[in-house]
Amino acid sequence: MLKSHRIYAARFNERLLGAVRVTLSGTQGALDSLRVREITRRRG
């Protein structure tokens, strides 16, 4: 089965808040490498 990777990012007010890598395999996907900006984590 062929796998592909995509990266999705979240932005708000022109700032990058976080990103996640998605590995697609057929009709399923797995999320990994979730990253959230440090200052965003502290804001609740």
From TrEMBL:
<keyword id="KW-0808">Transferase</keyword>
<dbReference type="Pfam" id="PF12568">
    <property type="entry name" value="PanZ"/>
</dbReference>
<dbReference type="InterPro" id="IPR040448">
    <property type="entry name" value="PanZ_GNAT"/>
</dbReference>
<feature type="domain" description="PanZ acetyltransferase (GNAT)">
    <location>
        <begin position="3"/>
        <end position="44"/>
    </location>
</feature>
<protein>
    <submittedName>
        <fullName>Putative acetyltransferase</fullName>
    </submittedName>
</protein>
<dbReference type="GO" id="GO:0016740">
    <property type="term" value="F:transferase activity"/>
</dbReference>
